[in-house]
Amino acid sequence: MPDSDSTLSATDLFGPVQLGPYGLRNRIVMAPLTRARAQPGDVPSPLAPEYYGQRASAGLIVAEATQISPQGKGYAWTPGIYDAAQVEGWRAVTRAVHEQGGRIFLQLWHVGRISHPSLQRDQQLPVAPSAIAPKGKAFTETGFVPYVTPRALETEEIPGIVDDFRRGAQNALAAGFDGVEIHAANGYLLEQFVRDSTNKRSDRYGGSRENRARFLLEVADAVVAVWGGERVGIRLSPVSPANDLAPDSDAQATYSHVVAALNALGLVYIHVIEGATQGPREVPGGFDLQILRRLFKGRYIANNGYDLALAIEARRRNLADLIAFGRPFIANPDLVERFRIGATLSPLDPKTLYGGAAKGYVDYPVMAQP
User: Fold this and answer.
1) Are 51 and 361 in contact (CB under 8 A)?
2) Which of 145, 220, 340, 367 is the most buried (most CB within 10 A)?
3) Residue 225 scores a pLDDT above 70
4) At 218, which helix (H) or strand (E)?
5) Cβ proximity of 323 and 29 under 8 Å
6) Active site residues
């Protein structure tokens, strides 16, 4: 918590900021948060418009990770963006956010090997750059089950997944989103290709860091062709071990190459998980996140374990343009206002994070008005 009211009044965290074509109300981002409340057919919950509308005071909302195809699904009850019913469900969400004066991007997602045959059509194997099984368990409709060894994608299959991202971007546009974020973090498919620990391919998508980044850049190019770079962001987690993703052998060089190459496409922001996803913020020796910030020509959104004091300090030192908050937004739909006046935050109920209906989703209270 900041030391005084003067700290709050001095920070620009609550002031407007330009993000591509959009003038955001503040520099606070609601991070994408999987809540596992989608309906059958991977259609967003009918409560989702209320949930997101309650949190529209954020400068920007990045909606929960959303699979671009049935193959991209890795968790039970997560929403999709690949058919008409899903588009209609999301249209209600964007309408609710816009009615409150907010802005919302959709996160486009393919989990790769972080799935299970029971979540795939026709019980097919999950896909990955290489047939390397992750340690851990998949969250399915019947509970947690061990991951399986994925199937390595054939070279000729990869353009089809690029097309799935393109269609997801087109559907997000039709659903009324203000932009999209490409999920290339947390050990999912695009990052599985980027890191040499999970990519053992010998074709044009493996080997050198240029080859390993090729798939991600082809996806970004396809999405930018739909939206324009000024309305496309990307999420990266350069040092996170999430989903059993071992480090890249030269993470600084690999992710510096990725970020520099993204500049050519004109993306509006990189959304960087600093440290381990939902874990320690410490970055391994030798890796400098600010190198990525300096390399990238657009906005830098910082994420992972931020509280108000840390966010104010990051802005004071100009370490990030915007700050993303995840779980604090779950229990505090009015998080921006609570931060603005230095109010106490409500705790979240971990038992209602995933699955269920209204409880723990749309029933967290806002502060009493004077």
Assistant:
1) yes
2) 220
3) yes
4) helix 214-227
5) yes
6) 188
